[in-house]
Specification:
6 copies of one chain form a homohexamer. Helix content of chain A is 43%, strand content 19%. Chain A is an alpha/beta fold.
């Protein structure tokens, strides 16, 4: 997910424009035009920093000088200064909230992803935590990037970068085999094919038909194990990845991962994000 | 917050465009171009519906027929069908995720706001729950509207519709009295003036200087009471509103409201939203 | 009305893009690519400078060097050089008209506003001159800012930053009292409430119901005095502001202001602006 | 200036979006969602209607039903209803100001243009009134169209549709002959070439070098006559058009036109427009 | 590549807006506002129709009635009417060139793709013709779709939907094995990995390291055969796809396909498109 | 066609954004964030360079350092380095394809235009090669500019900068004389009038009615000569330009030009462009 800075800058300035309206009337009234200040962005909770690059770019595009003190993906302790900005006081005061909203959301997502990933790592489990498309509307890029920074897999971005045959597609298709074969024949060779299944039998059908990944929807750990066993027996386990989704929480995560399922995807990371508590302190520049 | 439908339509189509990329390759491969289907949007949790108008507009702008079965702001039980869409299968499948992301987020915000508002109502407390500007970046309109539908106050939208003198402004000002007087003199008569304070003394200074609202930042219930008492003694309690912010949770909410503070604002409603679990079921149209 | 420069830059470049079309064919044909010139922006009339910041930002964003010789809001005499640009000749020639259109319009608005404000000031009257939403379509920001620079009040920006109950709203409401009470109850605490009235009686009703401001529509000075007297008797004159609008001209302005009405708003400032005559002189750079 | 309706619609909705902000809070608070009303747009002054097509398109794009009662370019008397809208009350109230701002400005421009054109017509003079590029920034299309509706010539639109060698270009060129010859050789055959001159001699040089039009900048009527005479003597008067610009007012217009100059262009029409007084009356739909 | 019509409409209207400028002055001058006409879009060459859906959507969005007489992907003979439009004459005349430019380019791409695909089909060869990212700038969607309609594979859309390690990436990497392994470990499981190689040995290294596809850059048919043989011997030929690119022309295409390479990608299809000759005939509506 | 760099930059970044999607995943995975490289853009064919300025601006706007080694319009030999970029490796790899697509297309257009122009020059013929509006959709600016760099005439840009009465306009008009007279009377004096004709007689009618240019559609060289002769006899040949269009190829070009027709316009230059083969080589920066 490397985007040239200029393109990212335009998205970020757009987010700021949305927030400003016709101008910051408090700042215009109170703060002199030539005042130079320093601002520290400080985390008030432990977590994983994310969005540092984004607020750096936003600040610099506004003419501020930015000095990141941590890197995106770093684990940070309560009280840590993440980045400082210096420059025009009015500009800093006007972009404070947009910057904090972005860095708090992204860090919140990265923190949760890291916590889950580490849990699996400590238990010596190879399962990968992944995002879904259940992001905040319009924030796909930022939400996915935060999952990556937390150590998760961003999964597909759009409807254009992977075939994912879901329950609603299957309802409208003849059957799983036909659906998978049809996509294998018609879709671009450049895309992987994933199928969402609700039974072990369907998982096997999808695998035999040539799917690259099966998404085991709301499978219990036991049912996941059965599926993986069955795939092994058929000699398909090397050819296909398994993804578990639905009903998985921080509490039962390990049980699911112990099945050796390849991927666990969690909508909660992005649709029910808990923002990291981050604030800004400003003081006049000596 | 009434916006002509056409303007809202453009924002919504933009959110969809962001999600689609170069096109839905699964749907293009599997679903025939002339298939007509029906889709039900169903809540899987109890909550307050929000975003129904938004997804109606989005669906209709795509040529779908939409039939809302609940109104925005309605309390809905698990299993309730919120809205149905009928029309072109490919279109419905392509907009499913964007529609659900929007309605889940907005309903999640409305649900939490309603729960807190009702808690106060039941305890016969008049304090109003309010939003902050701590929204998801770029989603200010939708987040604020969801708070309103839940029964909360949207608070200011932008930096342009209210003077709000915060800690960082005061750091750069001489003192509270001067700051308030300066804004009263220079700012437009059409705007209210609010000041964030950290002590009872400062609250009184702000009130005397003519602020319309004081935001009591991280005040304990006890300290809030003291402030309100002191304002009454000075005969200012009719002229000024009090807003409590910081450290307030669902658990201690009543204690804060019992102080008779006018407004309690909560960033969590929008920065740490828990989405309502809502999904879509599609079937061929008979 | 402080907007970070980057956001303003994008609006200004958009205005220029509108004017350029597919390129300046005169300049491309006649002027060599590497010619450096100096340009002076000169006022041909006395007035108040406005838009200096805007054309500075526009020029600099195009790679020109800009040297403002007056500040926005300064009173300037005929013949005064307001700002000089130096740099690429083709760029200066291509942006000349857009820059002059902007600075002439804004200075025209500021000049008229200042003339009226000074008239009141000299007569020791405290009434404030205010803008309306009757701006050139799409130029709200620039028109309001020019009024501010002239010493006027920008009034509300949008339909979102103040409740303003106008004649057409009242036609559709039960009565004034109900309308005001309804908005007081439903609208955000962060917004002021203004009501347009056509009789003294209605002004009093609005005031009693809790409006923050009454707009006295097409009231004679006599009728305004009556209203203010009546408000005083009711002890409401401290709680409410009065705004006169309609039928007020440069000639009768003082008569209106002598009533001690708080605000006089004038659509003419922005809907029938007389541009200040400002031109650009270019010479080769030595 | 025919633009497909859909494109015009997007520009108009953009102007409205600019004005709305986050929504009309007055209307949202006071006016029920299902109220249907009728609105009459009424002129309070005699003039020429313009912008009727634009507000029709804007209204219809918002879902309103629009019924134009006059055509663009019609002369209308005080009290005349120009167009009626019927439909959703909230929508009509929210777009009232943008619609009126547009139709008032365009009608103001058309009215002034018509007045001047008629003056010449009555005096049996063939000179044509023309616009300049001195429009309100960003409103070029609407300002030029209003001039056309008033009976004037829109002149060039952009920097791309005509070669116009102005004073500042000449300052940077060797001399007029070389400049004209250079453009004749290098510029596209599809474009006309006009040259701004400040003396009779220069006018003749430009004509001899092959210019299609000479702009006589700040020429007295006497000097214009001399130029035209000289062109006749040289047998060039059939090949070239003459345009007078600068120092021309409503008072001296006829004197200028009596010189038989082909075009008189006036910046005032668009940079110092006097809006036509037009308002909207709304009543509930029976 | 299914995109909801509304989104496609916005892209198409943008292309038209680019072409129109400030309006069609010929049409405005000559054609009455209420004239209804019929227009036939006719191919003057044999070929494959593409862009029919796009011009249908564009025409309908402008208020025209469109009647497609062939489907996208149909083979059409010289003289065939592809689609008719009826409606407002000015609108049809204004969008004629944009519509023809689009349908001619897309049909030209589809025609060439079909010709090559059929050649292989007739020779009973299974190799697939594919596009590259060498499209006209900004027209990726339309160019790729045209290739699909011609029977080709669109290949990846963006830089985000597939890992494609090209020569320049390898220059900056340690070696092929490390590069492939690094991407397999770090990239999302949802994406395929392709590697561009310049020797048989490198193709084998890439395959062993786990690439999904190898792009054989400028390989002779002989060298392609060697590669495929070697992959078979290593038992990797089922696990990996082979793509030939570079030096392939219509003349030698079969020789390349006879190697049984899976995909042949050709930049010429989109970077050096020969437009299909298509024109529009308009007549008054009886 | 001079456009201020900032405006061009925005168009170019838009083209890049279209191509990038959610980010370059190959580069993000393989290339370290701090790697600095040098890239050479090399032509693999002889031709005329065009687009050098455009890719310079695009590269610099992304923070790269660009060093053009040839000027736009220069004739270049196979193997020539056109421009080098140095800077961040990820940025260069991400913009490589967009930059090459642009420079290859523009250079391809310029090369073909130059070849044809030179052919005429060598034969001492004064006829000018011109573009049409048959460009790639949305790329009008770049296609026209490339024709200019090749030595051709860009012809009109839009529908707004010239009256061009085509076959379809005439079908809907009474006759040629009336059509030309109507436009002469109604259209702005600032625009030229061209008429497309299909017979010598019509050419003469158009000329007599006052057209500035006649487009001789699908005339044979013989018919063109006849037309020019007839115009001479009528003494109109000095007043009108002749443009030949249709059926003209590289082979028969001279025959057409020998008729002394003023302009030959060719759609093929832009609708069936053959891209110049240009590639990029990257190496680590020492």
């Amino acid at each position: 997910m490397f985007i040239p800075r200029k393109i990212l800058e335009e998205r970020l300035v757009q987010l700021l424009t949305d927030d400003i309206g016709q101008g910051d009337i408090t700042t215009a009234t109170l703060i002199p035009a030539d005042l130079r200040v320093e601002a520290m962005v400080i985390t008030k909770e432990d977590g994983v920093a994310a969005g540092i690059m984004e607020v750096t770019i936003l600040g610099e595009s506004l003419g501020l000088s930015a000095k990141p003190l941590v890197a995106d993906g770093d684990e940070v302790k309560k009280g840590r200064v993440l980045i400082t900005f210096s420059g025009d006081a009015r500009t800093i005061l006007s972009f404070e909230r947009t910057a904090l909203n972005l860095v708090s959301r992204m860090s919140g997502i990265a923190t949760a992803t890291r916590r889950l990933s580490k849990k699996l790592e400590k238990a010596h489990l190879n399962t990968r935590i992944a995002a879904t498309r259940k992001t905040a509307p319009g924030l796909l890029y930022f939400d996915k990037k935060a999952v990556s920074l937390g150590g998760g897999d961003p999964h597909r971005f759009h409807l254009d970068d992977m075939i994912l045959i879901k329950d609603n597609h299957l309802t409208l298709s003849k059957n799983i085999e036909t659906a998978v074969k049809q996509t294998k024949q018609k879709a671009s060779f450049s895309k992987k094919i994933e199928v969402e299944v609700t039974s072990v039998a369907d998982a096997l059908k999808a695998a035999k038909a040539g799917a690259d990944i099966v998404m085991l929807d709301n499978f219990s750990p036991k049912k996941i194990r059965e599926t993986i066993e069955a795939l092994k027996k058929l000699g398909l386990s090397e050819k296909i990845l398994t993804e578990a989704s639905g009903g998985i929480t921080e509490q039962n995560l390990e049980k699911y991962a112990q099945t050796q399922v390849n991927i666990i995807s969690l909508g909660e990371l992005t649709h029910s994000t808990k923002a990291l508590d981050i604030s800004m302190e400003i003081k006049p520049k000596k």
